[in-house]
């Protein structure tokens, strides 16, 4: 492995994946990280401080993370020059060191660069975006019983309209595709053909099956009750509808699930139910009866919407964590669910909880459970003592307002 500009760390070990799928993690692993744009400058140092303190405390100094800064977004352009938003070095580092973490990266709406977040997921084939949503006691929430929400979202991360196959109206490519659809395929329902932009939505058997397989494996390992396929298959029959059908196929053919009654719901031998729900109904049911849902498997766009909606139910995207994982190669890049919140950049104000809980997921993935537990304990204590950042403080009575860095320190104190 060689880098164009990065200096390979001189100390620290490389995390490896064994044939049986388990990871070999030394006591001093090298972990690449991207600071992130916008509030990345605030939350990433807070996250590193909390993680380092937890690891030090949990293992009496016998284990230590060797952080390795790699670049993407605005900082990459500064380091590598014009238009290098995602250097090869960064992808190489995540491939080589297997486990990494990133802050949020800016994506301008409309023209300009496509999403770097999406690009990292696609280029490293991190097909599962895993976003657990659970309630921490005391967190202010807009719903009456936030404690009833305990779900883990498995969002397909490489396909769907996020593949970026879009053609703007007025371009030759757009005209060519439209002519083909109308003349060759007989499409009659493009309402305003002269002015329509077009997007393509690829949903594949492989992409669906590896995602649903990972969700079911997770449900088995974590002893969860059900896996729900969320789709809009009544309208998008061959994309979202096929996702549903292929998802059930995985359950029946690979996990010996038995069809319940008339189907298509089915049950694994260990009792886990695999079911499905249409996306709009799901979005109202997460408010009215969230306890009926557990592990969720869905496509890219639905997963994006569902992540933020569910995060809001348990207290907002300030504390919703996530991971992008390829369960075959073992490569995993952990990241907050929220974006760069540019209006708060550099103010030491926002909640670092989302990135910190993403680091908790990372520590569990590495098998460093004791350090992960300490951080969760510290976070729960900070929230129950009502010593919180602005997003929680404005919704709580008699809370003490802390800065981003102070909230990190509060978590460390509570470990
Ligand atoms: N994975 C990634 O890197 C992601 C990147 N993005 C990108 O981020 C940029 C900004 O996107 P935008 O749509 O504004 O969404 P953001 O998630 O960045 O921010 C929206 C709002 O969410 C709240 N919020 C976000 N983060 C925090 C936090 N850490 N603590 C407390 N509150 C928080 C703030 O609410 P309030 O105003 O109420 O205080 C903020 O104004 C875009 O370029 C977008 O593409 C978006 C999502 C994911
Ligand atoms: O990449 C982006 O700008 C948005 C991504 C996003 O919203 C998400 O992953 O949840
Ligand atoms: Mg999102």
TrEMBL record:
What reaction is this protein's catalytic activity? D-threo-isocitrate + NADP(+) = 2-oxoglutarate + CO2 + NADPH
Cofactors per UniProt? Mg(2+); Mn(2+)
Q: Which Gene3D superfamilies match?
A: Isopropylmalate Dehydrogenase
Q: Signal peptide location in the record?
A: none
Q: Which SMART domains match?
A: Iso_dh
Q: Where do the coiled-coil regions begin and end?
A: none
In short, the EC number is 1.1.1.42
Q: How does it assemble?
A: Homodimer.
User: Entry's PANTHER family?
Assistant: ISOCITRATE DEHYDROGENASE [NADP]
Q: What is this protein called?
A: Isocitrate dehydrogenase [NADP]
């Amino acid at each position: 492995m060689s880098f164009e500009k990065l200096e390979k760390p001189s100390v620290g070990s490389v995390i490896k994946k064994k044939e049986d799928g388990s990871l070999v993690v030394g006591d001093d692993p090298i972990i690449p990280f991207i600071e992130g744009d916008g509030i990345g400058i605030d939350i990433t140092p807070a996250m590193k401080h909390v993680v380092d303190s937890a690891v030090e405390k949990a293992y009496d100094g016998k284990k230590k993370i060797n952080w390795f800064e790699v670049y993407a977004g605005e900082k990459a352009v500064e380091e590598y020059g014009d238009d290098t938003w995602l250097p090869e070095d960064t992808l190489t580092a995540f491939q080589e060191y297997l486990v990494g973490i990133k802050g949020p990266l800016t994506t301008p709406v409309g023209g300009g660069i496509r999403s770097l977040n999406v690009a990292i997921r696609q280029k490293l084939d991190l097909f599962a975006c895993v976003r657990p949503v659970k309630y921490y006691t005391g967190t202010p929430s807009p719903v009456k019983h936030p404690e009833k929400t305990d779900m883990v979202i498995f969002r397909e991360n490489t396909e769907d309209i996020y593949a970026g196959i879009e053609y703007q109206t007025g371009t030759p490519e757009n005209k060519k595709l439209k002519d083909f659809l109308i003349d060759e395929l007989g499409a009659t329902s493009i309402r305003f053909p002269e002015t329509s932009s077009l997007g393509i939505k690829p949903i594949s058997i492989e992409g669906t099956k590896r995602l649903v397989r990972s969700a079911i494996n997770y449900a088995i390992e974590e002893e969860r009750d059900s896996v729900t396929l969320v789709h809009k298959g009544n309208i998008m029959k061959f994309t979202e509808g096929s996702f549903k059908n292929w998802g059930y196929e995985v359950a029946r053919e690979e996990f010996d699930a038995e069809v319940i009654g008339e189907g298509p719901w089915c049950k694994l031998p260990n009792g886990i139910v695999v079911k499905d729900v249409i996306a709009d109904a799901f979005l109202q049911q997460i408010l009215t009866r969230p306890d009926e849902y557990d592990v969720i498997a869905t496509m890219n766009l639905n997963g994006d919407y569902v992540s933020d909606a569910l995060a809001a139910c348990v207290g907002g995207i300030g504390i919703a964590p996530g991971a992008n994982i390829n369960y075959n190669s073992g490569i995993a890049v952990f990241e907050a669910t929220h974006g760069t919140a540019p209006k708060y950049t550099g103010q030491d104000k926002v909640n670092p909880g989302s990135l910190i809980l993403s680091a908790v997921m990372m520590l569990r993935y590495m098998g460093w459970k004791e350090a992960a537990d300490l951080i969760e304990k510290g976070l729960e204590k900070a929230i129950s003592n009502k010593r919180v950042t602005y997003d929680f403080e404005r919704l709580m009575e008699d809370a003490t307002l802390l800065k981003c860095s102070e909230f990190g320190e509060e978590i460390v104190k509570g470990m």
